[in-house]
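Human:
Take a look at this sequence-structure pair and walk me through the tokens.
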Amino acid sequence: MSIIIAGAGLAGLSAAITLAQAGRKCILVSAQPSERAQSVLAEGGINAALDNMGENDSVQEHYEDTVKGGVYIANRRAVKGLTDNAPKTVMWLSSLGVPFNRENGRLLQRPFGGQKKRRTAFAKSSTGKMIMTSLIDKARSFESEGLIKRYPHHEFLRLINDNGICKGMRIKDRISGKCASMYGTVLLACGGMNGMFPGHTTGTVHNTGDAAAAVFMQGAAFSSLEMIQYHPTTIGIPGKRCLVTEAARGEGGRLFVKRDNEPWYFMEEKYPVLKNLMPRDVVAREMFFARRETGSEVMLDMTGIPHKVWCERLPDLKKELMSYTGLDPEKEPINVHEGIHYFMGGILTNEHHRTSIENLYAAGEFTSLYHGANRLGGNSMLGAVYGGITAAEDILSLPQSSECEVVFEDAPSDEPYYEESRARFNDALCEILLDGMGIVRNEQQLDKALSALEELTPENDREKARVMLARASLMSAAERKESRGAHYREDYPQTDDEYKKLSVARTDGGRVHISFIDADKEDICR
């Protein structure tokens, strides 16, 4: 079968390169060039138990931290593969030319949240950009050999689905407006659903969520849609939230609020071991409660970070903060707020990245595979690169066929795009989702949000699909009557073993169905 990859970030490029290295041709479709992919914005680093810092780190400890951080609802077979192969994955990236920070030839590693060992390899505070640059260069060498063919300004529209079997996908040229059908095995690496929350995420809204919504409407099972990670430290900039990387806390940044006119370092008081480097769901929630208790804004004090560290490890962060806030973080604390950063939920896949639809794969943030109820910092880039490689290796086991011929239709697009309507609609949908799926949730908020969805009037198929995906997210949160990881219910504040499972959302005939399954179940997608 021909191989078609939608998305050209870390997961898509890693898959394409893996296929090309094996001599298999593929088509790489993306709405934006790789240089503008969400992956470029990743800052802090990538995890691997290299044990370069003399702390007796191990892949077993990385595995245990990942499973614990995800509050025991991630697929353990998948996590084992991820953490066991992390050192090899990082060294592969290094061999491609990623300029990781080094000392005496060895890769340096910094501490990140939810982990007691320093296992996060980094390239200053622009790790995503540096990895992407190396992958882009490698992919271009295969493009010149004809093994990778790019469609760099084309968007995914929907699958070509024949009785539950994926036969290919429909795409649209964003310049000409013309559409085409592509036939073959499909790998979706379209990123997270940032566009469902315009103005409130650290990620690019070019990751619209439309691909996820379309595939959900076509019958694909999704899981963990209630698990939305709020990054503790972001600042507001026009149109989005700007990430203040967790590396700032890893290098010594401290969170505080004013209580009785004195700084209260609440994370250090409540969590004396990991302090400001507790998992992100814990830090974000404690910031929410500290702000509510004191009425004061949360500040990030980075004035204790040595000047040399700013120059060698965090130069881009300092430049961003000075540009956007006008403050020098070496001299003054910065006001930070929680912002939507990562979607642990996505299309349901098994450890080989196969989905519930035959001949359809998914990787990167589009999936829900590795992170359970909460993603550890440094595991996202690892999951994307390793996931792309793993999906491609499984695809290589499929029989080959003739090369896919792509012919664009002369007629105008049959996929209407209502820009003005969508802006108004998306803002209204976003407000409903934010009301129901904030850092702290309860039944009243979720019921109110579900009722508000019924009042929306979608004007086209895309908007109808987005409403359906939003309903699945809210229903997943409503059905999980416990608190676990990023999902905190103040009416059910305890973690309940009854829900030590994945939520699974499916739709048929316009209705959404939620069930719960064991994350380690064999043949999980069936």
